[in-house]
């Protein structure tokens, strides 16, 4: 029988590891880290963007990986979820529905202990910035008037909204997820390391938590290619737990009472005077290198 009272707390974790081109090895790391988080009572574990396959390969290789490995990878995630009893969020590359010849989607998959994928989110904002062109490798999801492209998932007594890396730079998307009921934002990333990038990562995570008075679960791939600094932030923007090494998990207890206390003390969501509306007209792709050039390190940028 289902309890009439929703859970008042959720043990959540962020996991950090560097994905390779060996999908089986990546799944082994997911299993090991999920098991480690479960041992710390975690019920939800957020993994990085592109956990299925390394980003720093040619576009054709990513397309092949999506065709060959997406379904086995999702099946593997389902098996891990079933065996560990936790809900997983992880990044993958997926063929475009109805057009397997198109560049794949950069997808986040949510898989629960029931063994069946619960939800998916295809990345909306592609990182065509800092002289990088993510759109050369993947296809952006289309936006819709009803925000159908956005993804929120109930986990325990919370609602989790999904953001994929560069999405973090668009506060209106986080706010749209909160409008749909999210009180936890899960951010999966492969945030490239480089001048100012680590500062941007931490500042934007903190801002999304503070302005939305919500928890933020931020998983990133580690240095040297990415910034690392995977962490969990509370609704006041304080870092509650963090991954300090190259690989590992950080676990924190999310508390409904604390969330309500913060939203009572800082009722900024109730004080809003403007609403978020989607832009449904596709944006044109700018030529590579458009805009001012800023120094970044080599590697795949997210």
From TrEMBL:
The keyword Ion transport is annotated on this UniProt entry: no
Protein name per the record: Nitrilase-related carbon-nitrogen hydrolase
Keyword list, A-Z: Hydrolase
Protein family: Belongs to the carbon-nitrogen hydrolase superfamily. NIT1/NIT2 family.
Annotated region (Disordered), positions in chain: 277-302
One Pfam family matching this protein: CN_hydrolase
Source organism, top-level taxon: Bacteria
PROSITE patterns reported for this sequence: CN_HYDROLASE
Record-level Gene Ontology MF annotations: hydrolase activity
Domain (CN hydrolase): residue spans on this chain: 10-256
């Amino acid at each position: 029988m289902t309890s009439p009272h929703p859970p008042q707390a959720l043990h959540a974790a962020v996991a950090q590891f560097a994905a390779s081109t060996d999908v089986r090895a990546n799944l082994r790391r997911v299993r090991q880290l999920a098991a480690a988080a479960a041992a710390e009572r975690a019920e939800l574990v957020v993994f990085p963007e592109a956990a299925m396959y390394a980003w720093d390969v040619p576009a054709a290789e990513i397309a092949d990986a999506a065709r060959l490995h997406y379904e086995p990878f999702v099946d593997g995630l389902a098996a891990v979820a079933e065996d560990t009893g936790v809900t997983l969020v992880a990044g993958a590359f997926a063929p475009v529905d109805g057009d397997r010849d198109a560049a794949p989607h950069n997808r986040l998959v949510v898989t629960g202990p029931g063994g069946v994928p619960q939800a998916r989110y295809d990345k909306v904002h592609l990182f065509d910035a800092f002289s990088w062109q993510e759109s050369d490798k993947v296809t952006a999801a289309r936006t819709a008037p009803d925000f159908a492209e956005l993804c929120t998932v109930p986990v325990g007594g919370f609602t989790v909204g999904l953001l994929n890396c560069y999405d973090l730079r668009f506060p209106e998307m986080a706010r749209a997820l909160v409008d749909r009921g999210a009180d936890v934002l899960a951010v999966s990333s492969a945030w490239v390391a480089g001048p100012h990038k680590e500062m941007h990562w931490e500042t934007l995570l903190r801002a999304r938590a503070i302005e939305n008075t919500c928890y933020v679960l931020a998983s990133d791939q580690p240095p040297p290619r990415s910034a690392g600094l995977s962490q969990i932030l509370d609704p006041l923007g304080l870092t509650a737990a963090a991954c300090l090494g190259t690989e590992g998990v950080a676990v924190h207890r999310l508390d409904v009472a604390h969330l309500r206390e913060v939203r009572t003390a800082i009722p900024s969501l109730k004080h809003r005077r403007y609403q978020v509306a989607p832009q449904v007209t596709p944006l044109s792709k700018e030529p590579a290198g458009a805009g001012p050039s800023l120094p970044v390190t080599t590697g795949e940028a997210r």
